[in-house]
């Protein structure tokens, strides 16, 4: 896919996996997606689709329901039960229009349900929307990870500063000693686990009588 569309710069190089046994559907979808610089992969049955998804980890999966062997519902169910593929958004593309099929699709983990005949504008609008949502979610998750790492680093620095301070530092809750730094435990001649949960007044008296 080489033809670029500047309307979606944030999803240009993402990978889409189509799982469908119908050559006409595959040709139509590939033609629609050619407007953007996606990497488009194809699998003609559920088993092969799961294998490709596990190996490549695409950004989005377009999945037919009625296929020989494993149907789309079971394919989606297995994708969502695998840690390697559970976060990949799945959009069902199907001729099935009954409400029960739509309900089942969301039960097994799909994010959207498009009925045939396929319409170019609808396909592209929904594909781009879910790709952007996934990209946004990944950015938010990365920000959370970065902030969590920074918080852990800050906590480690503070803990090291407190532990190695040249003054006694203690944390007392409801009259019980919950923490004492090395300076205090060294003076008391007690390991930290022996000092924890003792009445603080008792701990202070032990320091006074040393």
What does the radius of gyration come to?
Answer: 29 Å
What is the helix tally? 8
Characterize the main sheet: 5 strands, parallel
Shape: elongated
Question: Portion of residues in helices?
Answer: 40-55%
Helix-strand sequence = EHEHEHEHEHEEHHH
> How far from one another are the termini?
79 Å
Give a short summary of the structure.
The chain is of the alpha/beta class.
Description:
- The chain has a 5-stranded parallel sheet with strand order 2-1-3-4-5, with helices on both faces. A two-stranded antiparallel sheet has the order 6-7.
- Helix content is 50%, strand content 16%.
- It has 210 residues and is of the alpha/beta class.
- α2 runs parallel beside α3.
- The relative contact order is 0.10.
Question: Key terms for this structure?
Answer:
210 residues; alpha/beta; five-stranded parallel beta sheet; two-stranded antiparallel sheet; elongated
Strand-helix topology:
Elements: E1 15-19, H1 23-33, E2 39-43, H2 46-56, E3 60-64, H3 72-80, E4 90-94, H4 99-107, E5 112-115, H5 120-163, E6 170-173, E7 176-180, H6 182-188, H7 192-195, H8 200-208
Parallel strand pairs: 1-2, 1-3, 3-4, 4-5
Antiparallel strand pairs: 6-7
Helix pairs in contact: 2-3
């Amino acid at each position: 896919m080489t033809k670029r569309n500047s309307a979606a710069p944030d999803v240009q190089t993402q990978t889409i996996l189509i799982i469908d046994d119908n050559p006409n559907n595959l040709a139509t979808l590939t033609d629609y997606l050619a407007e953007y610089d996606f990497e488009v992969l194809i699998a003609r049955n559920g088993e092969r689709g799961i294998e490709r998804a596990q190996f490549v980890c695409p950004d989005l999966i377009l999945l037919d329901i009625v296929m020989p062997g494993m149907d789309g519902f079971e394919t989606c169910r297995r994708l969502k039960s695998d840690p390697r593929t559970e976060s990949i958004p799945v959009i069902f593309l199907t001729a099935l229009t009954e409400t029960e099929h739509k309900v089942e699709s969301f039960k097994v983990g799909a994010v959207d349900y498009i009925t045939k005949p396929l319409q170019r504008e609808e396909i592209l609008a929904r594909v781009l929307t879910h790709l952007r949502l996934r990209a946004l979610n990944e950015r938010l998750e990365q920000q959370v990870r970065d902030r969590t790492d920074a918080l852990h680093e800050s906590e480690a620095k503070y803990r090291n500063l407190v532990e190695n301070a040249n003054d006694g530092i203690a944390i007392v809750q409801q009259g019980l000693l919950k923490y004492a730094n090395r300076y205090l435990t060294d003076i008391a001649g007690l390991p930290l686990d022996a000092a924890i949960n003792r009445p603080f007044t008792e701990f202070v008296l032990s320091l006074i009588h040393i």
